[in-house]
């Protein structure tokens, strides 16, 4: 008499779990951002040509084997300037997002936890700043601090800090009355310890999603300010001032505007796709919907 293996040991065997493949938006977004970071890192250390060297004999040269993306009105290599501009844009974006996240987190954490008049006063001032569009507020601040690399970082950092403070405050308010926070108070822990040990770690997920999307906003704002002549001063290359410099030559040297515009567009696409993937990964509501 034969015994069916499925009724004995086979029944207790568990099916092997299939490894989940990354979402398509994570793959495409990660690839585009990886290319950006590679270009920025390489551009900070090496470029095919000196991005500041003038060569009037080669001005407005079309893309060729010698200059893959052509040259500008001063004979400077467009590819080299794009790589150097990527390094500048990424550096400004990283420092700006870091500044906004650090100060916004401190403000939102303190305001949401303390409540009362402290919260009302801080949020009134915060909402007043939020009433202004970020780019408009940055323009006003640049008039005070000056149009340079670090002026842009300070201006955009201040402009985006209120958004971070608002998100962190909302998270803190939802956590403040939870049981583990009450238990920390009963144990006699200091308020600063409770905020740092129990509340701040729970703000990491929304902060990660916000910082990812904010990176794209900052990069676009920096390009817009440079396009308006309020960014990094020439001859230092940025994608924005390269786009602005291409306007008089758009009829005879179309590549001067296409390549910086394409770089900005693809970077923003990659950031948005990667931000969606991060949100889907960290937001429990999005995981449930899948």
Summarize the model shown.
This protein has 290 residues and is mostly helical. The protein has 12 helices and no strands.
What does this structure look like?
The protein is mainly α and 290 residues long. It has a single domain (33-43, 80-282), classed as Orthogonal Bundle (MetI-like fold). The protein is built from 12 helices and no strands. The chain has helices at 9-12, 24-45, 78-114, 116-130, 134-145, 149-175, 179-186, 191-199, 204-227, 239-245, 255-282, 284-289. Helix 2 (24-45) packs across helix 11, helix 5 (134-145) packs across helix 6 (149-175) and helix 9 packs parallel to helix 10. The longest helix is centred in the N-terminal third of the chain and has 37 residues, at 78-114.
Q: What Rg do the Cα atoms give?
A: 25 Å
Strand content: under 5%
Instruction: Report the structural category.
Output: mainly alpha
Provide the CATH top-level class. Answer: Mainly Alpha
Taking the alpha carbons of the first and last residues, their distance comes to 47 Å
The strand count comes to 0
N-to-C series of helices and strands: HHHHHHHHHHHH
CATH homologous superfamily caption = MetI-like
How many helices? The count is 12
- Number of domains as seen in the coordinates: 1
Helix share, percent: 55-70%
Give the biggest beta sheet: none
Could you say which overall geometry the principal axes of the C-alpha atoms support? elongated
CATH architecture: Orthogonal Bundle
pLDDT average, as an integer?
86
Uncertain segments are: 1-12
Instruction: Look up the CATH topology.
Output: MetI-like fold
């Amino acid at each position: 008499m034969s015994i069916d293996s499925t009724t004995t040991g086979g029944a207790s065997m568990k099916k092997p779990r299939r490894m989940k493949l990354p979402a398509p938006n994570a793959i495409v977004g990660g690839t585009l951002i990886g290319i950006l970071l590679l270009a920025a890192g390489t551009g900070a250390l090496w470029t095919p040509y000196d991005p500041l060297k003038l060569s009037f004999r080669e001005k407005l040269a079309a893309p060729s084997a010698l200059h893959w993306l052509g040259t500008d009105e001063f004979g400077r290599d467009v590819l080299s300037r794009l790589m150097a501009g990527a390094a500048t844009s990424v550096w400004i974006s990283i420092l700006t997002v870091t500044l906004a996240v650090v100060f916004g987190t401190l403000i939102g954490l303190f305001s949401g936890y303390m409540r009362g008049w402290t919260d009302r006063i801080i949020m009134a001032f915060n909402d007043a700043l939020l009433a202004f569009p970020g780019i408009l507020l940055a323009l006003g601040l640049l008039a005070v601090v000056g149009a340079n690399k670090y002026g842009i970082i300070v201006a955009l950092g201040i402009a985006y800090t209120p958004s971070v403070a608002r998100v962190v405050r909302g998270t803190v308010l939802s956590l403040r009355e939870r049981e583990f926070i009450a238990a920390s108070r009963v144990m006699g822990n200091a308020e600063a310890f409770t905020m740092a040990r129990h509340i701040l770690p729970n703000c990491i997920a929304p902060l990660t999603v916000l910082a990812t999307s904010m990176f794209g906003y900052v990069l676009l704002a920096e390009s817009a300010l440079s396009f308006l002549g309020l960014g990094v001063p020439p001859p230092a290359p940025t994608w924005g001032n390269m786009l602005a410099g291409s306007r008089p030559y758009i009829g005879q040297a179309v590549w001067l505007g296409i390549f910086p515009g394409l770089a900005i567009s693809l970077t923003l696409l990659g950031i948005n796709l990667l931000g969606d993937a991060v949100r889907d990964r960290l937001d429990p509501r999005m995981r449930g919907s899948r």
